[in-house]
Each structure stands twice: as C-alpha cells, then as structure tokens.
Specification:
mainly alpha
Length: 270
C-alpha cells in the first residue's frame, strides 16, 4: 500500500525537471508518452473528486496517491521527450500550468487531510490549470507530428481521441456527482460542451471505430467489449442530472479506458 503524504508527493511533482540528453527520440514512443500523460491528468482529477467527496477517506487517498505516482512517471517521460525533440515552447507551457495545478492541489489536499474542506476558488484554480495541462499535452502531441512528419494511422488516432474524451468525461462525471459547488473553470477556459454532448460525441467516435476496425477480427472483438461496457453507462452520462451512479463509472470506466488502450496496441506502429 502506498503511504505517501500528499504534501511531499506534490512537492516532487512541482519539482519535476528534465535533463537535455540530445537523445534520438522515437516519435511513436513520444506520442504514446504524451497521450499517457494527457490521460493521467484527467485520471488524477477523477481520483481527486472521489477523495474530496469522501472527506479525506484513507482508502481514497491511497487511490489518489496511486494516480499521482502514475502521473509523475508519465509526466517525466513526456517532459523528456518534448525536451529531446526541441519543443521548448510547448514544454514551458505545460510545466507552467502543471506547476500552478500542483500548487493548488497541494493546498486542497492539505486542507482536506486536516479535517477541513478546501476553498472552492482554490479547487477551481486547480481544475482550470489541470484542464490547461491536458490541453497542453495535446498541443505537444500535435507539435511532435508537425515537427517529425510522423504519420499516425487514422484508426490509432481515433482510438486515442476516444480514450482521452472518455477519461475527461469520467472526471467531469465524478466532479458533478461529488459536489454541489458550481466550478467555473470550463467556461473560463472557453469550453461550453456539456457532459451529455460529450457522451453523444463519444458514442459517435465508437461508431466510427466500428467501421475502421471491421476488417480486423481481433480489433473488432476488443472494441465490442468496450461498447458493451459503454452500454452500462451511456444513459447515465446523457441524463447525468437525473440519477448519479458514480460507482458504475468507477467500475466500468476503468475497463473502458483499459479496453481502448488494449485496442490501440493492435494499431501501434513500431
């Protein structure tokens, strides 16, 4: 079991740095690392909302610390890849936003672990900078493609886009289920898409992937399993204001993300 004090762990995350190794970075690996980092941002937000809703339950803290440990590893790899590829502007952007997110998350976790409740403005600031961080990783991902000319197959890109969308949806669902406070960070970031609209878009992405994977029996089987899990959740996402079922999102959401990750391995280029 992880026994990491939240303040100490966040200090490590703020202090993350990279060394200039001038390595020959494989674009395919760099893209996979940036995708993983992007997913980690949303997964951490989801774990945070569950920890906050539990009012500091130790089991939820273990889960949150696990998410943060995974995020730290993914960030380190993504940061190094961006540095090696000379994406200094993109790297500076993501580091700045995560530095602010980590600072706010540190303050929020400290307040909760002390038996209190974090100020809404600080939580909103964490969520805003976390949102920007995920967006920065997507910008870094696009910059790798632009700079290297590396071609990602449409099917693999579709799978990655679906995974990122679902992970973001799951975090937003946990947020709506765990608090009555109306966080404004998404509107501040210029994002007006509602959870039901996101769910509709995700369903359409799965429809597109159905057509893309139709000629690959292994891929089609993996995607069918993802669609089965989504079938348990779709109505809850579309009607999220009527009946909240976060335990089902926790149960099947993780399986959907894992299923999409396993599906991507069928199309991952060397």
């Amino acid at each position: 079991m992880l026994r990491v004090h939240p303040t100490a762990l966040l200090a490590l995350l703020v202090a993350l740095f990279v060394q200039s190794s001038h390595a020959q970075t494989n674009p395919a690996i760099a893209l996979a690392n940036l995708q993983a980092a992007r997913l980690s941002v949303h997964a951490t937000a989801s774990a945070f909302h569950r920890y906050q809703d539990s009012e500091g339950d130790k089991k939820q803290l273990v889960i949150l610390n696990g998410a943060l440990q995974q995020l730290k590893a993914n960030f380190q790899a993504a940061y190094q890849d961006m540095a090696d590829l000379g994406l200094s502007a993109e790297l500076k952007q993501v580091q700045g936003h995560w530095r602010n997110a980590a600072r706010d998350l540190n303050a929020v976790m400290t307040a909760i672990s002390g038996g209190g409740y974090a100020e809404g403005a600080i939580t909103n600031s964490y969520l805003l900078n976390s949102y920007y961080t995920a967006r920065d990783f997507k910008a870094g991902y696009d910059a790798v493609i632009s700079k290297t000319g590396f071609k990602v197959s449409p099917t693999l890109q579709g799978i990655r886009d679906a995974a990122a969308l679902f992970q973001e949806m799951a975090a937003l669902y946990m947020e709506r289920s765990s608090t009555e406070y109306g966080y404004t960070y998404r509107s501040e970031a210029g994002d007006t898409e509602t959870l039901d609209q996101m769910a509709s878009r995700f369903s359409k992405q799965l429809d597109l992937l159905d057509r893309m994977t139709a000629n690959n029996p292994e891929a089609a089987k993996r995607l069918a399993n993802v669609r089965k899990k989504w079938g348990f959740l779709e109505k809850s996402f579309i009607n999220y204001n009527e009946k909240s079922v976060p335990y089902l999102v926790v149960k099947f959401g993780g399986e959907i993300v894992t299923g999409l990750d396993e599906l991507s391995t069928v199309y991952t280029q060397p």
